[in-house]
Write a structure and sequence with these properties.
The protein is α+β, with helices and mostly antiparallel strands. Helices cover about 60% and strands about 15% of the residues. The strands form 4 sheets. Strands 3, 4, 5, 6, 7, 10, 11 and 12 form an 8-stranded mixed sheet that branches. A two-stranded antiparallel sheet has the order 1-2. The chain has a two-stranded antiparallel sheet with strand order 8-9. The structure holds flavin-adenine dinucleotide. The site of flavin-adenine dinucleotide has 19 residues, from strand 3, strand 5 and helix 14.
Length: about 600
């Protein structure tokens, strides 16, 4: 059985054709970076992913991390794979050159992350969180903190964690209660964090925890939270890991999936206080942490896509091999010939390609902020990034639940039993709608901060861009039907936008009641946009050289399938948006 192959053709199509990567890099003055380099990098990542990391995925599922007297012991084989990952320079791919990074575009980082996440989500979370911590520290840390910690984090010699959640503070960060008291040139932290991913392990000589806590004079609520850097081992005068700091993993959660990713209860300061250093301004930790969370939110959307891809590859192979039909001459044929199995495979394929396009486009939008020629242009890209982020996180991870379930369905009973491995993807993907802000929180972020806060202007401009794609598609005869479906979807988006702007102020429950459905609607419309752009490119390329014909023809059919089977969902989500809050809120709590 094939373990996993990175879908190079589709990823490269998105990067080179949909994003116009070479042109983007030229405009950004990055002369050395082009599609050829991207292919070479993806090739290398794909090799490490399929040959070394992917085979460890079922191992980690069966033999997850354990807690012993020396702390957390990771799954056998992970340390060696992590060493190979570090030795090949992957942790530094998109980090700044100032700290030893390779300064590659974010979108390339997203594509490479797809490799790691499809190979083993549990493994990939460790470097993913380190990447987020590098971003937060780079943006908010003092020069001294950056010089001291970033080089070893960028090289992957040390990993990092994000310590936000406490037993009483999950979605509601205002309740964070961990404390930090000044002590000379540092702070002493006390308290407990729960659910901390890769909070401890033996793969590296140090672990850098970024921790939200309150100073003694902190105001109540989210305005009183500060961010601290707390290393597992304090550094000696030569900058090497020395004395053990007062932070320990005291237990591991047993959970539905990602068994190889240790989910730790972390105690700070049981023996006098964990030494920590303030990152950024006092009481402004949430802003600093948000740098990390926004990065992580798009990254979590990628996780949903990545597990769908792996589930799809496995289901496809099974569908080609499993014989269940008998022809009139008595010969048997595989289940891929049944229309309903094809429907399920096409649903997976079309949704995955739409998700991939959207996730990469959103990652490239972050690059465009950095590459902008003036502050106004940067602001435009930042606003678009803000709009994309909850859609990438919320829509992709919700849809991923359906797709990985189809991956099981295609296997029949063999999908439900653990032997084939399809069930692992379904279990592993379940967390993606929960961590980094639940789907409910993404919906609220989208509707509140990203739409109502700017009177729907950023959304208006996105819908105008989608309309422009639909207009361009209308010029090609064979895409006319798809173009008109995309225009209707844009109309649904416009109607929902106007409805929201009109009704949100009238009733305080409106935004909260409709936000997730609004987000799902926009997800399907954005997916339609991606597939529309893909069809347009494919049709134009087919008129030209004729190379890659089979892939391009399949793209046209896949876009048609998306229009027929997935895009209509935007219309039904519009209906739920317009239903408003009444039937959601009308029952008294006792009537449930
Ligand atoms: C495996 C795993 C790994 C994790 N990794 C980390 C990590 O590395 N670092 C870290 O700090 N945390 C981590 N978390 C914690 C994770 O981010 C939280 O579980 C998540 O933010 C939700 O918080 P909660 O569990 O307290 O749920 P709650 O906040 O109690 O939410 C329960 C339900 O209520 C809804 N809800 C809550 N508030 C609102 C609201 N205002 N409006 C609408 N609906 C609302 C939610 O959507 C959800 O459906 C991890 C969790 C798990 C399970």
């Amino acid at each position: 059985m094939t373990v996993y192959n990175f879908p190079y053709k589709d990823a490269e199509f998105v990067i080179s054709e949909l994003l116009g990567f070479d042109q983007l890099c030229r405009e950004a003055g990055l002369e050395d970076i082009n599609g050829e380099l991207v292919s070479a990098i993806l090739d290398e990542a794909g090799r490490l992913g399929s040959e070394i990391i992917a085979p460890l995925n079922p191992v980690g599922d069966q033999k997850g991390a354990t807690l012993g007297k020396d702390g957390v012991q990771e799954t056998p084989g992970f340390a060696d794979a992590y060493r190979q990952y570090v030795d090949s320079g992957w942790p530094s791919l998109i980090a700044s050159e100032a700290y030893g990074g390779q300064n590659m575009p974010k979108v390339l980082g997203a594509a490479v992350n797809e490799v790691w996440q499809s190979s083993s989500l549990a493994f990939s979370l460790c470097p993913l969180l380190t990447g987020g911590a590098i971003e937060a520290l780079s943006a908010h840390g003092s020069d001294e903190l950056k010089d001291t910690y970033l080089p070893n984090m960028v090289s992957g010699e040390w990993t990092a964690t994000m310590n936000i959640t406490e037993s009483a503070a999950g979605s509601d960060l205002a309740a964070v209660a961990c404390r930090a008291v000044p002590e000379g040139d540092h702070y002493l932290l006390t308290g407990q964090k729960i659910f901390i991913t890769w909070g401890d392990h033996q793969m590296t000589e140090n672990i850098i925890h970024l921790v939200l806590a309150r100073l003694p004079d902190a105001p109540a609520g989210v305005k009183g939270i500060s961010l601290f850097l707390v290393p597992k081992f304090l550094l000696d005068e030569n900058g090497r890991s020395g004395k053990r700091n007062d932070v320990f993993c005291v237990s591991l959660e047993r959970k539905l999936g990602i068994h190889a990713s240790p989910t730790c209860v972390m105690n700070f300061g049981e023996n006098g206080g964990a030494e920590g250093y303030l990152v950024g301004e006092p009481h402004n930790g949430l802003a600093a942490m948000f740098t990390m969370m926004n990065d992580a939110r798009q990254g979590t959307g990628m996780q949903g896509l990545s597990l769908c891809e792996r589930s799809y590859q496995q289901a496809l192979e099974y569908a080609k091999e499993r014989l269940q039909g008998t022809r009139s001459d008595g010969t048997r044929f595989p289940i891929i010939e049944f229309p309903d199995v094809r429907r399920m495979l096409m649903l997976m394929k079309a949704a995955i390609e739409a998700m991939r396009g959207l996730a990469y486009i959103a990652a490239a939008e972050i690059d465009k902020i950095h590459w902008a020629k003036d502050p106004q242009e940067a602001q435009k890209h930042a606003a678009r990034t803000g709009l994309y982020t909850p859609i990438v996180k919320g829509w992709i991870t919700e849809l991923a639940q359906e797709l990985t379930s189809l991956g099981i369905q295609i296997h029949g009973g063999m999908g439900y039993v653990e032997e084939t491995g399809s069930a692992q993807h379904y279990r592993d993907v379940r967390i993606t709608t929960i961590y980094e802000g639940t789907t409910g929180i993404q919906g609220l972020d989208l509707v509140g901060r990203k739409i109502l806060a700017n009177n729907g202007e950023v959304l208006r401009s996105l819908l105008a861009d989608i309309q422009a794609t639909a207009e361009a598609m209308s010029d090609i005869d064979e895409l006319e039907g798809q173009a008109s479906a995309l225009k209707s979807a844009v109309d649904s988006g416009r109607e929902a936008r106007l409805w929201l702007l009109e009704h949100a102020a009238q009733n305080r429950n409106i935004a909260g009641s409709i936000s997730v459905n609004f987000m799902m609607m926009l997800g399907y419309i954005c997916g339609g946009w991606v597939m529309g752009q893909s069809a347009l490119k494919a049709a134009r390329l087919l008129e030209g050289s004729g190379s890659n014909e089979s892939f391009l023809r399949a793209k046209l059919v896949t876009a048609q399938f998306y229009t027929d089977h997935l895009l209509p969902r935007a219309g039904s989500f519009l209906a739920t948006v317009k239903a408003g809050a009444y039937s959601i809120m009308a029952l008294d709590v006792e009537q449930f």
